[in-house]
Amino acid sequence: MTSAADLFGLQEIDLSRDNRRALIADINSRLGESEELIGAREEVKTAEAELEALRRDQRELDSRVQDLDAKIGPLDQKLYGGSIRNPRELTDLQHEVELLKNQRRKLDDDGLILLEAVDTATRRLDTATERLTMLEAEWRADLVDLHATRERAEQELERLNAERKLRTAGMEASALGVYDALRPKKQGHAVARIERGTCQGCRLLLPSYVVQKARSAVALVQCPSCERILVGG
Questions:
Q1: Which of 226, 182, 177, 178 is nearest to 201 (CA)?
Q2: How crowded is residue 192: how many other Cβ atoms within 10 Å of its Cβ?
Q3: What integer is the mean pLDDT of 101-120?
Q4: Domain 31-168 is of which CATH architecture?
Q5: Which string of b and e fits 113-138 if b means at least 16 CB within 10 Å?
Q6: 56, 112, 138, 171: which is deepest, by most CB within 10 A?
């Protein structure tokens, strides 16, 4: 005969198995990169793109400066070389050179603004990269611990499965059927102890005849309220 005490012992094993399974599932969900790490990596990519865009603007500005310098140089030589004697032509040339030099000064001002923006973007990228490096190091360290914990949990689960197989080998199919049907409905707690005449599953007072019947252990007795199998106390 399979007693309520036998099923209570089986329940202890099954609860431990449930715990190990939940732990393994939790670890598996944490083995991937965290949202914080993914966000840090995206932040680095954004900072890199911003810095590259600014440096591209710098290269374009430098190219424009070189083009202007290439134009200003020969005109300056022509203006001050003495080859032009016509006053009107000299005035027009001088005006043209001044316009080009004004453009050159404007590019210099833009270059300073760009330089400051590049410095700020570089610092932002350095900060984001340092944070990403730190988070990656912490994640890798956690992976080592998580893998070790999962391996232990899997070994314990394997041992518990073997123990359950041995425990249930001689049990009655009908008793196991009642127990297995109740477990998912009662969050794994299909069997409850009786303490001071109260079912410890639902915490309700039991009729005296139910308590006596459960203590006699002649047959499985279920709580009239929650239907859990009762272990006499």
A1: 226
A2: 25
A3: 95
A4: Orthogonal Bundle (1.10)
A5: ebeebbeebeebbeebeebbeebeee
A6: 171
Tell me if 230 sits within 8 A of 199, measured CB to CB. Answer: yes
Radius of gyration of the chain (CA): 41
pTM over 0.70: no
Can you tell me the distance from the alpha carbon of 158 to that of 11, in angstroms, rounded to the nearest whole number? 16
Phi, psi values for residue 171, rounded to 5°:
-85, 155
Average pLDDT value for residue range 197-223: 92
E-strand ranges in the chain read: 191-195, 198-199, 229-231
As a whole number of angstroms, the distance between CA 175 and CA 85 comes to 120
Number of helical (H) and strand (E) elements in the chain, helices listed first: 5, 3
> Which region among 72-81, 90-99, 100-109, 213-222 has the lowest average model confidence (pLDDT)?
72-81
The whole-number average pLDDT for the span 156-184 is: 95
Structure confidence by residue, pLDDT tens digits, 25-57: 999 988 888 899 999 999 999 999 999 999 999
| Listed range (9-18, 127-136, 144-153, 208-217) with the worst mean pLDDT | 208-217
Tokens of 47: 């900072």
